[in-house]
Amino acid sequence: SPLLRADHVSRIYDDGQVQALSDVSLTIHQGEYVAIVGPSGSGKSTLLNVLGGLDEPTSGHVLFKEQTIRDAAALDRLRSTEIGYVFQSFYLLPTLTAVENVQLPMFETGLNARQREDKANELLETVGMTHRADHLPTKLSVGERQRVAIARSLANDPIAILADEPTGNLDSKTGVEILALFDQLHEQGKTLVVITHDHSVAARAQRTIEVKDGQLIRDTLLTEVSE
Ligand code: ADP
Ligand code: ADP
Which residues are in the ABC transporter domain (predicted)? Predict the structure, then answer.
């Protein structure tokens, strides 16, 4: 079923000097694993940010489960609980330990301190980071930082994970380990939308969306998606 839909979305920056997206329409279905590819500056991050409610279209609409995101409350809910985000540079808070970083999104929900910590420890176990729970990010390898960031993206049981170049700062061996983790999340039913420059990342997805000059130029389904 449709999960995220862009309906004639454009995004213009700098008073019209940059058209990052031009009239883009697409639907991402629940359970899909989608790779977004294309040259640098083609609009991939803008597309992901708009789909995930981190940026606002200049025109057009974004729909979540066929509902237009209309008010601030719906946008908040989308960002804090429906969607998890993973970035190239992790964005962990340097003064908090791994387990504390994973708990950050949970302050939006009704969990108490004990529940937050238990949940964060479970998520660290999922990403193979139990033994590093009390380490600060600076004491972790880059691959371990990305594992913590992935655990944090799962904090509120999102239906979808949106990731912007998640292996961009990792060596290829570490990147492959992170990709295996994404495969595992996909098998568990998460919808994944991943921006990548890396063909080996794109090859793992079921669908590849190619962006160029702010437009979708190709949308390739590699495997049948079961609904
Ligand atoms: P990609 O992710 O494919 O590298 P982006 O979506 O980051 O592409 O950028 C698309 C275009 O929009 C680029 O020309 C970029 O410089 C511009 N752009 C992106 N974000 C902003 C912003 N916040 N302000 C101004 N221009 C931006
Ligand atoms: P990516 O690795 O995704 O291509 P970029 O370096 O293009 O990353 O962009 C990183 C961030 O900076 C994005 O969130 C984007 O919106 C913002 N950005 C990109 N280009 C510009 C720009 N010309 N002015 C302001 N912000 C920009």
Answer: 4-227
Burial of 94 (0-12, 13-18, 19+ CB in 10 A): exposed
pTM: 0.91
Ligand nearest to the CA of 45: 1
Residue 92 alpha carbon to ligand 2 centre in Å:
19
